[in-house]
Amino acid sequence: MTTALSLRSLLSDTALPANEARMLMAFVLDKHYQLPRSAVLSRDNMELGSNALEEWRALEAKRLEGQPIAYLIGKRGFHNIELQVAPGVLIPRPETELLVEIGLREISRLKKLPGENPSITALDLGTGSGAIALALAYDAPHVNILATDQSADALNIAKANAQALHLESHVQFSQGSWYAALQQPVRFDIILSNPPYIAQCDPHLSEGDLRFEPISALTDHSNGLSCLEEIVRNAPKYLKSTGLIAVEHGFDQSAAVVELMNAAGLTDIQTHQDLAGHFRVASGRNSS
């Protein structure tokens, strides 16, 4: 028979880092007792029943094996929204919020242009869980957004997130590889993308959370630049005049992506740093 244990004893005895243990325990308390996250601290004398304790032990063991917390609890905060995540999609990273901020700044600029402003359109290539498109839609619901992905599983998760956030009328989804997902020729004000950019030989692919994430969302199975090259090279065909494209890339790929943008004839090319000080995003405008 399982002995009930207090939250304090369980959290002090675990080999998990304190912040990770509290996060998993908060999930258990919410699922089994509908208690808020603050209960982890405010009710530290509380004892878990057998079902809740069994769940805690299972989550603890899986995390100690290295499985990502986001997959274990099924959600991840991103920008101003919370997203459902599962092993079929990339776990949204804080650095990708930089793409959202760049998109929102461009939307603000377009709204301030003199004269009659037509509807603003944006394209999220390789949407995964829907992170970029839905964060953009949440803060700028008047923008028409199309999100694409070649994975049907990823699109199902993205659509579920859109429904959970009540944004299904603000974002359309289409399946296909990059621009091939577009059903008809169309030009956008903004194109945003966080494509696979890790080289296939990069040792990080066999470390940490990356071991459990979909490999096709992490690496292009080449030098890390092939997807970026395809997206950037074809961008002028799908951007309005002076339309903006911004792409996330690896911490050491900034110069290479800038070169790709120059080769594509883009202008006003800029590099953007993430919170860690790494050049993480490059942007440019259609010259036509």
Summary tags:
288 residues; alpha/beta; Rossmann fold; 2 domains; seven-stranded mixed beta sheet; two-stranded antiparallel sheet; 10 helices; 9 strands
Describe what this molecule looks like in 3D.
This protein has 288 residues and is α/β, with parallel strands linked by helices. It folds into 2 domains: 7-65, no CATH class; 87-285, Vaccinia Virus protein VP39 (Rossmann fold). Helices cover 37% and strands 19% of the residues. The strands form 2 sheets. The chain has a 7-stranded mixed sheet, with helices on both faces. Strands 1-2 form a two-stranded antiparallel sheet. α6 (97-111) runs parallel beside α7 (131-139) and α9 (226-238) runs parallel beside α10. The longest helix is centred in the N-terminal third of the chain and has 16 residues, at 18-33. It starts with 6 loop residues before the first helix and ends with a strand.
Average pLDDT metric? 94
| Total separate domains | 2
Using only CA atoms, what is the Rg? 21 Å
Q: What count of helical segments does DSSP give?
A: 10
| Percent of residues in β-strands | 15-25%
In spatial order, strands of the major sheet run 5-4-3-6-7-9-8
What's the architecture of the largest domain, going by CATH? 3-Layer(aba) Sandwich
For the record, the CATH class of the largest domain is Alpha Beta
Shape: elongated
Q: Look at the structure and name the CATH superfamily of the largest domain.
A: Vaccinia Virus protein VP39
What is the helix fraction of residues, given as a range?
25-40%
- Count of individual beta strands: 9
Order of helices and strands: HHHHHEEHEHEHEEHEHEE
